[in-house]
Specification:
Elements: H1 13-17, H2 22-25, E1 52-58, E2 63-67, E3 73-77, E4 90-95, E5 101-106, E6 111-116, E7 122-127, E8 142-147, E9 153-157, E10 162-166, E11 172-177, E12 193-198, E13 204-208, E14 213-217, E15 223-228, E16 234-241, E17 244-249, E18 255-260, E19 265-269, E20 281-288, E21 291-296, E22 301-306, E23 312-316, E24 332-339, H3 340-345, H4 347-369, E25 372-384, E26 388-392, E27 395-399, E28 409-415, E29 422-432, E30 436-440, E31 443-447, E32 455-462, E33 467-478, E34 482-486, E35 489-493, E36 504-508, E37 515-519, E38 528-532, E39 535-539, E40 550-555, E41 560-566, E42 575-579, E43 582-586, E44 599-603, E45 608-612, E46 623-627, E47 630-634, E48 642-649
Antiparallel strand pairs: 1-2, 1-24, 2-3, 4-5, 5-6, 6-7, 8-9, 9-10, 10-11, 12-13, 13-14, 14-15, 16-17, 17-18, 18-19, 20-21, 21-22, 22-23, 25-48, 26-27, 27-28, 28-29, 30-31, 31-32, 32-33, 34-35, 35-36, 36-37, 38-39, 39-40, 40-41, 42-43, 43-44, 44-45, 46-47, 47-48
Length: 657
Amino acid sequence: MILIAAAVVFTVGNLAGSGKSRAQRSPAGRQPNVSSAADPAPLRVPAGPIPGYLLIADRGNNRILLVANDKRIVWQYPSGGGPTYPFRFDDDAFFGPQFRTIITNQEEQHTIQLLGFPNGRLRWRYGHANVHGSTAGYLNTPDDAYQLPNGLVSVADASNCRVLFLNRARRIVRELGRAGACAHAPPRELGAVNGATPLPGGGTLVSEINGSWIDAFSRTGRLMWDFHAPVSYPSDPQWLGGGHILLADYTRPGRALIVDTHGRVLWRYGPISGPGMLDHPSLALRVRPGLIAVNDDYRDRVVLISIRTHHIVWQYGRRDVKGRARGDLNTPDGMDILPTARALTTPAIRAMLERAQAAPVRSQARAAVSLTIRAAPFRLPEPVERAVAVPWNGRILVAGGLDSAHSSAAGVFTLDPVTGHLRNIGSLPRAFHDAAASLIEGRLFVFGGGSSTSSDAVQTFDPRTRRGSVAAHLPRPLSDLAAAQLGGSTYLVGGYDGRSSRAEILVTRNGKQFAVAGRLPLGLRYPAVAAVRGEIVVVGGQTATGVSRGVYAFDPATGRTRLIGRLPVPLAHAAVIPVGSTAYVVGGIDSGGTTAGSVYAADLSTRSVKTLAIQGAKVADAATVKLGATTYLIGGRRGRALTTILEIKSARATGSS
């Protein structure tokens, strides 16, 4: 994958559900007779968009990770004493047909290795570490190795311009192309090959870098068809079935595309800037109907993209940050899926996951008691409630709200969370309160809100130029709504249109164009909202008939909303603090109009809601913003508008987060 490569409107319903992933096509095989650990805790597969667990070839860190929806690492290679054979620059990693093995190619090391799973033992290898060649036993920048159902291993021997098929005795039994002849004349000659994916029936789907060719070969090596891909650098094509092919465009800005066998584009994802932009994506893989996973190599993350909404709904790795610590990646270049059914029904895998589960469960228990709430050593100069706040360059942008005279404000301020210094840097065109806000490409966006009536205005403020403007309009006037950001998208939840509470969840990437991403089971005003482990959690809120106790999780990948649990008391005007897979609910007003003092923990993985025995924060309608392990509740009200700023330290400080 590391070698030298406009939106199209299309109805994607047939793409979202057609065909099967490579993992789903693999034969079930016979289960190994391995007993599980003594008295293990019942295995809980964390809920989320991944239908099981995600295998990641973390190339820059020379390791393979298996991660869960809650982003916990449940398996890795190498572990303990390190590898028994050199393991550098692991470009890809795929499960074998029965999920008992993982095959991985080390591109710049010029080797491929077959590992036992989950024991991690080296079972087979081909090539010579750090020596490239074209004679028997040698490879030159191998890519895309697969263990096939018939026992052979296929590999794109990229710089040798061929695809090899190897047996257990390390002998070449068949090849497409030939070493030293790098031209598009299939099947005798191929250009530099960076993808060789198995096809149903024993065929092979090949991508050639030069000329951007995609070739399909039969089981016997006959060319069935080929075409020029509409990309500059085709990478790792995947057969989806029904004449559809998924591939990545390995460039900047990169793209993921679905095309037909003539190269016509059926679906495309490829923002040219911003958080959603891809930088040299090497592999796109359908992980379930309607959901595409992409290795975003040079942005150091793996992202999951909804086919329907074109939005990132989950990611592992911090965007543009290389690292090896928990939650970090360094140039990830390969991936595969371990399905839930396989995890639950294979004794050896299940035992491994049960053992891995134990430590996070203990850590989660510590997280519940480590949440601390205290007043900051500084205050606002004037009281304010129902304002908005977003993080910006290590500081906090605070805007709008109601003052002590219940007048709407338009001012924009920066708050230094270290010194408490508050600085007026400008204003928005219209005064507002009860709006939602997010930071998009370095600018503050304020959605709707009210003054005398609900507004449809989308106001924006650039803190660098200190200029504000009305940038767009919502589909309808909305106040009393809430916002959460996830994967480069902003989700606007509920609200009031001047006549009734709304149930829609709107989504936008640029703050100017909106789509309906999903719906709540009922209309809500003043809900508490936060992004938690790839989902949008919605807590409480005001309904048409009263205050809600519901805790819901909206999955952007599917557009579905599920009930997590119910609060002990109805609650609105609260704040939500995400820590790991838990949403902590702080403050708010109950159905009797009393400011709440309890703290509740809603755990997405266990679908439980608990009351915590810690000192709460009696505040409602505070502007809420999270910076690192600290969440700030700015202003708000408790009978009247407040000047206080609360600091809530999350469990991240104890390492559980």
